[in-house]
Write a structure and sequence with these properties.
With about 170 residues, the protein is an alpha+beta fold. It has helices spanning about 5-10, 25-35, 55-60, 70, 85-115, 130-135, 165; strands spanning about 45-50, 75-80, 120, 140-150. It starts with a helix and ends in a 5-residue tail after the last helix. It binds flavin mononucleotide (FMN). Flavin mononucleotide binds near residues 11, 14, 121 and 124.
């Protein structure tokens, strides 16, 4: 798919079928993640793959009962890893760059999944400590986004956007 078609075709999906994500597709998604830019190329984030029903159910609980997390065959959890960034960038690395690194990486995963005909939704509303516990991440890592990945089980809702006139501020 052409890049701009991918961008247009990406919509949040909150209903998934049971078909698993093909290993070769997952590999492509993870390679896209690994190509994402990061501050100083420090890649101050970690990615956790959750496939088992028990952990997915626990993620649902940690995310205020967002049930679709359990429907998706795979959930990627992106954690900021401040320790990878702080040495070089100090406070800005710890408070900002690692969050941005994780965010960009998750975005690459979303768009990569869309290009392969898969669906996703960014999940940001969750209890960080609970998610950290479910995935067994160390205290120093900060869960930033969860991304269920799978095949859509319904038509996506196409959400409106602000007009470019309102969004973009051209300085004269
Ligand atoms: C930072 C962030 C946090 C989000 N958290 C959630 C969430 O917890 N649950 C959810 O269903 N959608 C969540 N979303 C998805 C947004 O609701 C969705 O992207 C937005 O409504 C636009 O719809 P679209 O993705 O279909 O274009 C989140 C998106 C972002 C970028």
């Amino acid at each position: 798919m052409d890049f701009f078609d991918v961008v247009k075709e990406r919509h949040s999906m909150r209903a998934y079928g049971p078909q698993p994500v093909k290993p070769e597709d997952l590999q492509l998604i993870l390679e896209a993640v690994n190509r994402a830019p990061s501050a100083g190329n420090m890649q101050a984030y970690e990615v956790y793959l959750v496939r088992d029903a028990e952990r997915k159910a626990a993620l649902v609980g940690a995310a205020g009962d967002q049930e679709f997390l359990a429907q998706a065959p795979l959930v990627l959890v992106f954690c900021a890893h401040p320790a990878r960034s702080v040495g070089r960038y100090g406070e800005r690395g710890a408070d900002l760059y690692c969050l941005q690194d994780a965010t960009v990486a998750c975005t690459f995963a979303m768009l990569g999944a869309t290009a392969l005909g898969l669906s996703t939704v960014w999940v940001g509303a969750f209890d960080e400590d609970e998610v950290r516990q479910v995935i067994g991440a160390p205290q120093g890592e900060r869960p930033v986004a969860m991304l269920p990945v799978g095949y859509a089980a319904e038509a996506p809702e196409v959400r409106a956007r602000r007009s470019l006139q309102k969004l973009v501020h051209e300085l004269q």
